[in-house]
């Protein structure tokens, strides 16, 4: 096994253990006790988003490694490959957790999303290429922090609070910047560099962007309708 695969396996096991112990670390309020597994799942997802966002300040990486913005295929800073491998382990764990604890009609969108991410990030881990591209994709985890906080506040029955309202505005702002704009930039980069990317990898990337972009636009509409246009 390559070190990347071992790191994926270790990350999967670590997030699995964290998920199992999360209820002791953050006991669910009475309003969330009917769905304990989801409470654990969201807090585990929040831990991954916080870890990724803390260790992936991509704007800083682009300043420290100017070649990264020109070559997202073969160039990546130290530690970037490990960060992507850790994320693959998390998405695998979250996939298994939802598959075991939630009905398919309730989770198929996220399962589909995770499948695309696992395939795309898995290619980067195995080939040690496109790691820079995966780093840019992980910028969405900055917004995921506030998406997960929103779910936690909803489960804790804290919708009518200043904290929820403030989080809604930050969530919307980071969503536009770190999801919509980031996906648009990635799609543009993929199109402009199609001659430098092997056909099979280009096909995977194109399909991934074609799936992710509509999903994120639909989610943005749902957020606007729920938090601002209700």
What does this structure look like?
This protein is mainly α and 230 residues long. It has one domain. 80% of the residues lie in helices and 0% in strands. The protein has ten helices and no strands. The termini are far apart. The mean pLDDT is 88. InterPro entries: TLC-dom, TLCD. It is a multi-pass membrane protein. Keywords: Membrane, Transmembrane, Transmembrane helix.
Structural class: mainly alpha
N-to-C SSE string, H for helix and E for strand: HHHHHHHHHH
- Strand fraction equals under 5%
Q: Specify the helix fraction band.
A: over 70%
**Weakly predicted, low-confidence segments:** none
Tally of strands: 0
Radius of gyration: 18 Å
Organism: Chunga burmeisteri
InterPro entries: TLC-dom, TLCD
Protein name: TLCD2 protein
Main location: membrane
Can you lay out the helices and strands and say which pair or pack?
Layout: H1 3-25, H2 36-55, H3 58-64, H4 67-70, H5 80-101, H6 104-127, H7 131-137, H8 140-155, H9 162-192, H10 199-227
Helix pairs in contact: 1-2, 1-5, 2-5, 2-8, 5-6, 5-7, 6-10, 8-9, 9-10
GO cellular component, one term: plasma membrane
Subcellular location: Membrane
Organism: Chunga burmeisteri (Black-legged seriema)
Features:
0% strand; TLCD2 protein; mainly alpha; membrane; 230 residues; TLC-dom; TLCD
């Amino acid at each position: 096994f390559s070190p990347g695969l071992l790191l994926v396996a270790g990350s999967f096991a670590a997030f699995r253990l964290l998920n199992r112990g999360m209820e002791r670390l953050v006991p669910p309020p009475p309003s969330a006790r009917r769905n304990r597994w989801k409470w654990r799942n969201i807090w585990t997802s929040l831990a991954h988003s916080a870890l990724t966002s803390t260790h992936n300040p991509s704007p800083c990486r682009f300043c420290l490694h100017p070649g990264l913005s020109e070559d997202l295929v073969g160039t990546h800073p130290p530690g970037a490959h490990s960060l992507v491998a850790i994320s693959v382990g998390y998405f695998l764990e979250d996939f298994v957790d939802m598959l075991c604890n939630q009905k398919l009609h309730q989770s198929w969108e996220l399962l589909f999303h995770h499948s695309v991410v696992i395939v795309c990030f898995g290619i980067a881990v195995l080939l040690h290429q496109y790691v820079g591209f995966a780093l840019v994709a992980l910028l969405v985890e900055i917004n995921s922090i506030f998406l997960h906080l929103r779910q936690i506040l909803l489960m804790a029955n804290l919708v009518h609070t200043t904290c929820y309202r403030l989080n809604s505005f930050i969530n919307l702002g980071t969503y536009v910047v770190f999801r919509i704009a980031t996906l648009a930039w990635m799609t543009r980069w993929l199109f402009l560099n199609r001659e430098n990317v092997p056909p099979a990898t280009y096909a995977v990337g194109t399909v991934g962007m074609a799936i992710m972009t509509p999903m994120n636009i639909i989610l943005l509409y749902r957020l606007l309708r729920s938090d601002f246009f209700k």
